[in-house]
Amino acid sequence: MAFSINHIFFPTDFSKNAERALPFAAEIAHKTDAKLTLFHATQETMDMAPDFEKTRDQVIDDSSGHFDELLNNLDGDRYSDLEISTVIQDGQTVTALLNQVNERSIDLIVMGTKGVTGDRNVILGSVASSVIQKSPVPVLAIPTGSSLDNFNNIIFTSDYKEGDLAALSHSTDIARLFHSSVDVLHVSDQKNMESEIKFRGFRDLVKEHIDYDNISFHHKYELDFFPTVSDFLAERLDSLLVMVRYKKSFWEKLTNRNLSKEMSFYSKVPLLVMIGDKSSTTETILEGSEKQRI
């Protein structure tokens, strides 16, 4: 089953980081013929203001002006045919954002990230991190300094979980849009027969069920996942990093690090977080490839 992108959601706080991320949303919308909705949540409690109508009108006017500035900075010729709408809502940002995502049948969220810590790591910010953890749809987080050249190569990290095959298939759908190369990376904490069998088994499964030629597989042996991925990225900074988010039990939340959240605070490259809990999608991919062989 292809990753169908019909509606893209772009939340913005009208910062420079958001402005730099908008061309990514516009380009994907352009390539997929998707609708693009720009969204701003205001923390103003308009209904509690002494002069409700005046406050509401001022907030709407200010936000509309900011939306116009954002859209005016887009390439008018390339994106003139896009179907673009804007939404303003008061309330807590993440809650309001996720409500809109559910109500509007959004397929992909694209948002800018902010902040640098130390000399090596980019922080998404609390809103983007919360959205990544709670969103029912994939989230593309764009850090400062990114360009569309990052989509020339896609790095897909896999731990061979049930939903990884479907998530990789969806990642190759994005790769087709940008003619990207795809690197599939797995990190094993031990070098033994079992880890090698899993690596080769997943590689063979991908080659059998996913029709994409420009894909390669990498197997690293280290105790710690994150520094290994960081080293891999250091040699491929012009890349899009893809991770798969899974729901965890209460015990696992207490005892295991949530790697997609950890990476959200340290990634220097665009980060696409796919949803890995839809095993039915994996079954559809397997059944589809079986029918093609018949």
TrEMBL record:
Residues 6-143 form the UspA domain. Pfam families: Usp. Belongs to the universal stress protein A family. This is UspA domain-containing protein.
